[in-house]
Write a structure and sequence with these properties.
The complex is a heterodimer of chains A (330) and B (317). Chain A is of the alpha/beta class and 330 residues long. Helix content of chain A is 34%, strand content 22%. Chain A has two domains: 243 residues, Rossmann fold (3-Layer(aba) Sandwich), CATH 3.40.50; 71 residues, no CATH class. Chain A has 13 helices and twelve strands. In chain A, the strands form two sheets. Chain A has an eight-stranded mixed beta sheet with strand order 6-7-8-3-9-10-12-11, sandwiched between helices. In chain A, strands 2-1-4-5 form a four-stranded antiparallel beta sheet, covered by helices on one side. In chain A, strand 1 and strand 2 form a beta hairpin. Chain A is globular, with a radius of gyration of 21 Å. Chain B is globular and about 85 Å long. The chains are: A alpha/beta (330), B mainly alpha (317).
């Protein structure tokens, strides 16, 4: 197998809070192959977005920093790259779309200008060429009447349309990786499906790898080949989507899957109501501890879970899990 | 529609001014008789009859409004000139002062504000904070006198008073340079408070804007810092500053009265000062009317500027 497009190794990101330095990402490793789509799943505050920002080199200034580990993109370690180099990569080789289409576009510039500006910055296109290209991109993300809408301002568009504009902007330079941070969370269900279709089609056409961040298991199944379940800044389980949904090893993954109402076809006697994973994600203060951070909410907890952090164990198929009782589940 | 409101507002200003002036004790007859060294009741009555001051209030008001509609603001008793002519002579000087001070305050205020928003912990930021607090609390006439002492008397860089040097004659550029030299100190004095105000405001809005989602988007696009700040953030931070500048335009007009007095700047402020001492009612009313006019026009211009900066303002379809 050739080198993966993106290889994250033992990544540790520290956040400086008022009275402490806490690892919001702790020893995370994963790989992304060219043209592959991978999903990050987990509750809010598990470090999914932090990972994305770290790849982009956009961790909050002075608060967050990569403490150790590496992010190798195309043979180049991004954690060591200069700000100028990162600026060349951002929006060009790796681009990102965000959760909030309503506020992610600048309200005082036309959408055409906001798309054209990326092309001018990275592809060296002139004013006119960039604008024509912006029209074509709007058409490609299926905004009707693109020729006219290109000079609209964001406030003249709906949420779904704005997210399409964001996608057009992100794909303008045909990036190798597209990071989509909960791209449909703020949208209507019907619009969500359209956006997923669009992303899938564009991926087929352009061969862009996609990193999806979501807490929607349905979206994962629709979009990705592999998934990474994150819990409290650590990778809990990594593997093929079908395999994990079929046979989740980590009790947290099991809980997450059980929460999805429509994954089990029939509503049976023992599964008639909505399920939940009881409890909440531990506070940041707990993050560095040498124990299983899921222990407080875990139905199969034993003493060792509270004494030592579980190692990551990988089976031959590449399905890995960080749980003292991961074997028991299989 | 906005123009219609402006006209109604102007009419209301007119009526209110006239009524207020009428309520104040003393009139021009008192001043004239004083300058003659006193007069008896008969002469006072005659003067009042000459100037129409013996008529009922409403009749006087009606006459006044009728004349204003014909662009006639009356005749100044004190300066012995038509008020309109008197004001039009002085208005350019005041407009020059106010507009240049406004521009200086806006440019410097925004630059300082943006700079300190970018570097919240730098020494420069503390300097800006200190400077704006200082500018905000120092009275205009005091700042003016200090500047005069420092830069006209101790270090004679700038002239002490007035707008032109009568001994200088020459082509346009020589005159321009002369006026500019006279303008520097009054302009700085008048704008000091507003520099402080705008820098604090633009600092606050800039900090808020820099945290916005679309700034993150701009960074994620790989744009340079300069583009992120001066293209994406600045244009969004300008609206509140422009709105504030529109509101402060009237404060600047009244600030100009003091500044003109300190620097003997031959503008409306000096005229207002003289005519109030002389109880020259038509001139005072005329000045008030023109000030209101300038402020209203200023507000209309503010609206226009806002539309330019923010496409969401105004009924764009």
């Amino acid at each position: 197998m050739s080198d993966p497009l993106l290889k994250v190794q033992n990544l540790r990101i520290e956040l400086t809070t008022r009275d402490d330095v806490v690892p919001v990402i702790d020893d995370l490793s994963f790989e992304l192959a060219a043209q592959e789509s991978i999903s990050f799943v987990g509750e809010s505050g598990c470090g999914k977005s932090m990972t994305a920002l770290a790849i982009m080199g956009l961790l909050p200034e002075k608060i967050g920093r990569v403490a150790s580990g590496s992010i190798i993109f195309d043979g180049e370690d991004l954690t060591q790259a200069s700000e100028d180099r990162l600026r060349e990569i951002r929006g060009n080789d790796i681009s990102m779309i965000f959760q909030e289409p309503m506020t992610s576009l600048n309200p005082v510039y036309t959408v055409g200008e906001q798309i054209a500006e990326v092309l001018r910055a990275h592809q060296g296109l002139g004013q006119q060429a960039a604008w024509t290209m912006a029209e074509e991109l709007l058409d490609a993300v299926r905004i009707p009447n693109a020729k006219r809408r290109v000079s609209d301002y964001p406030f003249q568009m709906s949420g779904g349309q704005r997210q399409r504009v964001m996608i057009a902007m992100a794909l303008a330079c045909k990036p190798k990786i597209l990071i989509a941070d909960e791209p449909t969370t703020a949208l209507d269900v019907t619009v969500q499906a359209q956006i997923f279709d669009l992303l899938n089609d564009l991926r087929r056409q352009t061969g862009t790898s996609i990193i999806m961040i979501t807490h929607d298991m349905g979206a994962v199944a629709e979009m990705s080949e592999r998934m990474i379940v994150m819990y409290a800044g650590r990778g809990a389980e990594i593997g093929g989507v079908d395999e994990i949904i079929e046979k989740p090893l980590h009790p947290y993954t099991q809980g997450l899957i059980a929460c999805v109402p429509h994954i089990l076809a029939t509503v049976s006697a023992e599964r008639e109501r909505l399920l939940e994973v009881p409890g909440i994600v531990p506070s940041l203060r707990e993050f560095g501890k040498d124990q299983c951070l899921f222990a407080s909410r875990c139905p199969v907890r034993t003493d060792i879970c509270l004494q030592k952090r579980p190692p990551i164990e990988t089976d031959p198929s590449g399905h890995s899990v960080a749980c003292w009782h991961g074997k028991d589940a299989s | 529609m906005r123009v219609f409101y402006a006209v109604v507002l102007l009419a209301a200003v007119l009526v209110l001014n006239f009524s207020l002036m009428h309520l104040a004790p003393g009139d021009v007859a008192d001043t004239i008789s004083q300058s003659m060294g006193g007069a008896d009741q008969e002469i006072l009555d005659k003067i009042r009859a000459d100037y129409g001051l013996d008529k009922p209030f409403l009749v006087q008001l009606g006459h006044y409004i009728g004349r204003v509609l014909q662009f006639d603001l009356g005749h100044s008793f004190f300066f012995n000139q038509p008020v309109t002519q008197l004001i039009l002579q002085r208005l350019p000087a005041t407009l020059l002062l106010v507009i240049s001070a406004q521009i200086l305050a806006l440019v410097l205020g925004v630059v300082l504000g943006v700079y300190s928003a970018r570097k919240p912990n730098s020494i420069a930021n503390y300097f800006v904070t200190f400077f704006s607090l200082f500018g905000y609390s120092a009275p205009v006439f005091w700042t003016g006198i200090l500047l005069l002492i420092a830069f006209s008397l101790k270090i004679p860089w700038f002239p002490v008073a007035g707008m032109r040097d009568v001994t200088i004659s020459g082509g346009f550029w020589i005159q321009f340079w002369d006026v500019a030299r006279h303008l520097v100190l009054p302009m700085i004095t008048l704008s000091s408070i507003f520099i402080a105000l705008y820098s604090r405001l633009s600092r606050a809005t800039m900090m808020e804007t820099l945290g916005a989602d679309y700034i993150r988007t701009a960074k994620a696009k790989g744009l340079s810092n300069r583009q992120v700040i001066y293209k994406h953030a600045l244009k969004n931070s300008l609206s509140p500053v422009i709105t504030q500048a529109g509101i402060q335009f009237s404060a600047m007009m009244s600030g100009a009265v003091l500044v003109e007095a300190v620097f003997s700047w031959p503008g409306l402020g000096t005229l207002a000062f003289q005519s109030i001492i002389a109880r020259d009612t038509p001139t005072i009313l005329g000045i008030l009317f023109f000030s209101a006019l300038v402020v209203i026009v200023g507000n209309l211009l503010t609206d226009l500027a806002l539309r330019l900066v923010d496409p969401r303002v105004g009924g764009r379809k």
